[in-house]
Amino acid sequence: MKKFISMLMVIAMLFVTFNFVLADNTKNKKTLIRAARIENVGSDGKKLKTNIMDKGKNEIAKPAVSFEMAKNGNLKLKGKINNVPFDITATPYKVPVNPNVQAFKPNDSCGNYTVLYVAMEKEIDKSVKYFNDTKPEDYYMMIKLYMRTNGSEDIVVVETFTNKDYFKELAKRNPKKNEVVNFDEERESQLAQFWYAKVFKPKVKVIEESHSTVRSKSNGITRLYKGIVKWFKTFSLN
Asked: How far apart are alpha carbons 185 and 54 in whole angstroms?
């Protein structure tokens, strides 16, 4: 009888330990900050790919980066990348890009970087991201911070994955009830997601048609359309 009770106690202790490990693993997945510095991306942005395509060579181990949401809904992002500091206050646009994307207007008080894009995104299985090997099912949303080091063509990527619903927090801290939004504010929010079009220069190839027939003009338009689509795909981080 004593042996049977002892076995039960051992099994119970193992069960408690097992549950503790599971809980600890879940806790570790609440927030994950990953950063990378891609050197000499160039004016066309062809070197800006994903961490998988880069084979992890650009990732910064244990990045010194922190973030928080202020009482007014602003995002505060602070840290150092290769000992170059940044201190960013990002104000949310009044109009979100869409229900899953909220862009911010950033300002870096340190002046070491040109901040290209700050945004919160949910349903991140549909998000375009640099760190493609991060499992989207482990996190509810992500915060993107993309910057260019001043005086160079280096791009810094900081992607924060979290299970906290900052969309709900933003709605509480920065309510938009009865606010009048003008067209310029809405357009600025929508254009923020196309930051790469303002940074990189597309390579334009002039197509000369040797025939003036309707068919040749139609083919020229088709090629031009395919070229535009290809250009946008180049900067999709895929």
From this structure: 36
